[in-house]
Write a structure and sequence with these properties.
The structure is a single chain. The protein is an alpha+beta fold. It has five helices and five strands; from the N terminus they run αββαβββααα. Helix 3 packs across helix 5 and helix 4 runs antiparallel to helix 5. The protein starts with 13 loop residues before the first helix and ends with a helix.
């Protein structure tokens, strides 16, 4: 059985959790990283979210995922090969998937998309509220269907991206 999709109220600890994880990742990957960003819903103050901290690691040139995996595994990250995009590598951490790590090339579509979506929600409270209401409704509708939940949000997310990219 899939783990349930649970959307919780914004937690003021999320930025501090991100910062601790950012420091850990920087300690093992060091100079290979251009930037580490807090992205996803937990990066938007006031937005309810699944309690998963999304981090985006930006590198100059994307190497094979296994290159990063040997370092990130020491922090508990699991490399998810072929995670649906050739524009990024994806890692998850924790039995309950409490951290997601998106490793992207600087200036790539995925890099621009994640930043643009986060920044748009931060700057537009009315859109943030719409997105929150949608996520809560979908979490009830697709409680044990994580993929269906994600797919059902796609049209809304793409509409925001179309405004920003």
């Amino acid at each position: 059985m899939n783990s349930p999709v649970i959307v919780v109220e914004y937690n003021e600890e999320w930025p501090a959790i991100y910062e601790r994880e950012r420091q850990l990742i920087a300690s093992v990957l060091g100079e290979t990283i251009i930037a580490i960003e807090h992205v996803g819903s937990t990066a938007v103050v006031g937005l309810s979210a699944k309690p998963i901290i999304d981090l985006m690691l930006v590198v100059e040139r994307l190497e094979p995922g296994e290159v990063y995996a040997r370092y990130l595994e020491t922090l508990g990250y699991l490399f998810v090969a072929d995670a649906g995009s050739s524009d990024r590598h994806f890692f998850k951490k924790g039995e309950s998937r409490n951290h997601h790590l998106h490793l992207v090339e600087e200036g790539s579509q995925e890099h621009r998309r994640l930043i643009a979506f986060r920044d748009y929600l931060r700057a537009h409270p009315e859109t943030r509220q719409e997105y929150e209401a949608l996520k809560k409704a979908l979490a009830l509708q697709f409680r044990f269907e994580r993929e269906a939940y994600t797919k059902a949000k796609t049209e809304f997310v793409r509409s925001i991206e179309a405004r920003t990219l």
